[in-house]
Specification:
about 75% helix; about 0% strand
Length: about 150
């Protein structure tokens, strides 16, 4: 170690920092999480349209509770795959806040889309709004999370 030149040390430290950033960029939630979320979103949209309000409300609460249980294991973003688990320092401590904020934003998009579709006279506006958000969540969830994490430096 005594024979290392300052330039070599800087190069090694830069390589280690690049590798850490590359791993941190991969932090997220498994693809299955996003598809389960999309299916749940779609089912809630259908229930809101065809079921009595008490059943749709109960299903929404159940979905929220199920998501809370699942998210408690996955929300930190550190377990994207079974092969890699990173420390909280690498994953970023703001990842849970970003996911919750993203979900709140998706709820807002669903409500606004349903209101716009209903005002336009669409039948089953809640279902179509849920389809829209389910497609976005299923196909784009990981990418949206990655962008949001970058914006807040999580």
């Amino acid at each position: 170690m005594d024979d290392i030149a300052p330039e070599q040390a800087r190069t090694a430290l830069d390589a280690a920092d690049r590798a850490r950033r590359q791993v941190a960029e991969e932090v997220g939630l498994p693809r299955g999480y996003w598809w389960a979320m999309a299916v749940g979103w779609l089912l809630l949209g259908v229930l809101s349209s065809v079921a009595p309000p008490w059943l749709a409300g109960t299903a929404t609460v159940g979905f929220g509770m199920g998501h809370a249980v699942l998210a408690s294991r996955l929300l930190d973003g550190r377990r994207r795959t079974d092969r890699l688990r990173v420390s909280a320092a690498v994953a970023g401590r703001r990842t849970p806040l970003v996911v919750v904020g993203m979900l709140l934003g998706l709820i807002g998009v669903t409500v606004l889309a349903a209101l716009a579709l209903d005002a336009d006279g669409a039948d089953h506006a809640g279902v179509w709004a849920a389809v829209l958000v389910a497609v976005v969540v299923g196909f784009g969830g990981p990418e949206i999370l990655r962008v949001l994490r970058g914006w807040v430096r999580a």
